[in-house]
Backbone:
């Protein structure tokens, strides 16, 4: 008797759970997971959004490590990325032209920039190779604070490394580094930085 009652109660509970679970019908599916939430929010708020549509394939560049010659290695990476972009972007470029939308193509990331509304985006999501859609956010470059002229006589708390190479002694001899030409650095540098621009050989005001 107890087992029968327990079975009936379990059946009633299971039926209640099934009835309480919302039925997902066609056309009621949630937002496409490939699209960042910020894109949907922008479309809801403004009606349109600037987006970056990332596409496949995403080429494996690890074989480049086996190419010892730097020029050949760079050319191989360039050719591989360009080939992936041609393959992945061909369908969406065709559709964008058909839709009459302006767009910009970026082969290095296999991505396309375009401004779309919600209906246009949903249409583009049906195209092969689309793997992610991100909001193209604006970023503002913060201008550096004006640099004050350095006076070695007033310098305090000299870093130990500077002191170790006897830089204070060099300053006392009048050697400040002024007028020294620095060649290109492999990591790159911001030539138009206020501390460099007046000494940069390529600057012609």
Residues:
């Amino acid at each position: 008797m107890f087992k029968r009652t327990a079975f009936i109660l379990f059946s009633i509970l299971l039926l209640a759970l099934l009835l309480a679970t919302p039925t997902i019908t066609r056309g009621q599916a949630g937002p496409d997971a490939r699209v960042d939430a910020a894109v949907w929010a922008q479309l809801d708020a403004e009606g349109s959004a600037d987006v970056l549509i990332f596409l496949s394939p995403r080429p494996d560049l690890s074989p480049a490590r086996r190419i010892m010659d730097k020029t050949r290695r760079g050319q191989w990476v360039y050719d591989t990325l360009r080939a992936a972009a041609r393959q992945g972007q061909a369908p969406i470029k065709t559709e964008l032209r058909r839709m009459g939308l302006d767009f910009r193509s970026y082969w290095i990331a296999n991505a396309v920039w375009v401004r779309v509304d919600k209906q246009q985006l949903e249409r583009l999501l049906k195209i092969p190779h689309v793997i992610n859609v991100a909001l193209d956010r604006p970023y503002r470059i913060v201008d550096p604070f004006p640099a004050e002229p350095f006076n070695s006589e007033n310098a305090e708390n000299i870093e130990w490394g500077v002191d170790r190479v006897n830089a204070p002694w060099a300053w006392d001899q009048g050697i400040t580094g002024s007028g020294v030409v620095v060649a290109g650095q492999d990591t790159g540098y911001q030539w138009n930085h206020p501390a460099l621009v007046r000494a940069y050989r390529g600057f012609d005001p």
